[in-house]
Write a structure and sequence with these properties.
By secondary structure, the chain is of the alpha/beta class. It has two domains: 174 residues, Rossmann fold; 183 residues, Rossmann fold. The chain is 45% helix and 14% strand. It is built from 15 helices and twelve strands. Helix 8 packs across helix 13, helix 9 crosses helix 10 and helix 10 packs across helix 14.
Length: 366
C-alpha cells in the first residue's frame, strides 16, 4: 500500500511504483495517489486531488473526510492482505496510518519523511515508535532521524531522476517556442488552489513591474498539472507541466517556497522565493517553526542563497529590485546565487532514489 496525499507525493509514488513493477511485477499495489501512480499500476482507493490542503487553519474543513479515509485504510490493513505500507510525506494523516499498521503488525516504510527539522520535533518519538524504516530525501535528515532512534537511510532527492537529461537554454526555449534573444522571467505561483489564490496577483504584478523596467522581457507563468488558472487574470503566456524546461530557458525565476526552489537549483536558474498564507496560519507558524528560512533551497544550503519575500514583504517592487539584479547576465549578485545553487545541487545526492526505495521496500515487505 502506497499512500501519498498531494501532487508531489503522487509524482514520487508513481516513480516508486514503476520501479516496484520492474523488480516485482506480480506484487499488487494499492494506495492513495493521482494520475502518475494510477499510470504505474497502483489501484487507487482515493485520488489526491480530493485531499491536498495545507495550513493550520485550512486543514480543519477536511478533518471528517480524512478520518473516514483513515478508517477505510485501517480496515484494509487489518484484513491481512497488506505486506507493507509505504508512506510519502503528508505526516498529519500518514503518521496515524503508520500507527494503525504498527498495531496490525504490518511494517512501515516512510519515504519523504516529515519535515521535523522545521516544526513538529515532537513527532520524532512517534516516528521512532511506528515506522520500521525511513527513507529521507534531504541530506541532513538522516543524522537527525538516527539520533532519535529511527532506522534512516538518505536515498537522494527524487527530482534528480527527472533532471538526468536537462535541455540546454537554447533547446528549452525552442521547445517552449520562446525567443532566443530576449531575457526571460519565469513565474511559479504554486501547485495548490489556495496558493494560487494568495499568490497569483502578486506574481503577475511583479511580472508587470519587470516588464515596465525591461520592455524586451519575456514573462511566462508555469501552471502545475493539478490546477487551472484564469487566463483573463494573466497577461503572459502559460506553460503547463514543464517546470524543468522553463527553468532551463529562464534567466531568473520567482518561485513559491517548496520543491520548485530545488528544481531551480538543479536547473541552475537564479531565483527569489515568495510566499503568502492565511494570516492566522502564519502567526501560528511563526511560533512553532524552528528554522530561519522557508525556501527549501535555503534550508538545504543552511543560509539564504535565494532572497525570501514572505507575507507583507511580498511587495512586487521589492521583488523586482532583486530580480533585476539576477537577470543581468554579468552581475555580481547573479554569480553569487548561481554558485549557491551549485552547492545545493551537490548536496542532494545522486539520481536513482526511486530504485533505491523500491529495493528497500521489497526487502522489508512481508
Amino acid at each position: 500500500m502506497i499512500v501519498a496525499g498531494e501532487a508531489s507525493g503522487d509524482l514520487h509514488g508513481g516513480s516508486l511504483a514503476e520501479q516496484l513493477r520492474r523488480l516485482a511485477p506480480d506484487r499488487p499495489l494499492v494506495g492513495i495517489g493521482g494520475a502518475r501512480m494510477a499510470a504505474a499500476g497502483v489501484q487507487l482507493l482515493e485520488n489526491v486531488d480530493n485531499l491536498a490542503v495545507m495550513g493550520f487553519v485550512e486543514v480543519l474543513a477536511h478533518i471528517p473526510k480524512h478520518w473516514a479515509l483513515l478508517r477505510t485504510l485501517r480496515q484494509r490493513i487489518e484484513s491481512g492482505g497488506v505486506g507493507l505500507v509505504v508512506l510519502i510525506d503528508y505526516p498529519g494523516f500518514n503518521l496515524k496510518l503508520a500507527a494503525a499498521a504498527k498495531e496490525a503488525g504490518v511494517p512501515v516504510l516512510y519515504y519523504v519523511t516529515p519535515q521535523v527539522w522545521a516544526w513538529g520535533a515532537g513527532r520524532l518519538a512517534k516516528i521512532a515508535e511506528v515506522v520500521t524504516k525511513a527513507a529521507p530525501i534531504l541530506p541532513f535528515e538522516e543524522k537527525l532521524l538516527r539520533d532519535h532512534g529511527i532506522d534512516a537511510e538518505f536515498v537522494g532527492h527524487p527530482l534528480l531522476d527527472r533532471a538526468l537529461e536537462l535541455p540546454t537554454r537554447e533547446a528549452a526555449r525552442a521547445q517552449l517556442a520562446l525567443a532566443q534573444d530576449r531575457p526571460l522571467l519565469a513565474l511559479f505561483p504554486g501547485s495548490r488552489e489556495q496558493e494560487i489564490v494568495r499568490h497569483l496577483d502578486d506574481f503577475v504584478a511583479t511580472g508587470e513591474e519587470m516588464r515596465r523596467r525591461i520592455p524586451a522581457l519575456q514573462v511566462v507563468v508555469s501552471v502545475a498539472p493539478t490546477i487551472q488558472l484564469d487566463a483573463a487574470k494573466i497577461p503572459f503566456p502559460m506553460v503547463r507541466g514543464a517546470s524543468f524546461p522553463l527553468l532551463r530557458a529562464a534567466d531568473a525565476a520567482m518561485c513559491k517556497s517548496g520543491t520548485t526552489t530545488l528544481e531551480a537549483a538543479v536547473a541552475g536558474c537564479p531565483l527569489v522565493v515568495a510566499y503568502r498564507t492565511n494570516a492566522l496560519t502564519y502567526a501560528i507558524a511563526r511560533r512553532v517553526v524552528r528554522i530561519p528560512h522557508i525556501g527549501l533551497v535555503n534550508v538545504v544550503a543552511g543560509r539564504e542563497v535565494a532572497r525570501e519575500f514572505v507575507q507583507d514583504a511580498l511587495n512586487p517592487r521589492d521583488v523586482a529590485d532583486e530580480l533585476e539584479r539576477l537577470i543581468v547576465s554579468n552581475s555580481v549578485r547573479r554569480a553569487e546565487v548561481v554558485r549557491g545553487l551549485e552547492e545545493v545541487r551537490g548536496r542532494l545526492g545522486a539520481p536513482g532514489a526511486a530504485a533505491r526505495v523500491a529495493r528497500m521496500a521489497l526487502g522489508i515487505a512481508t
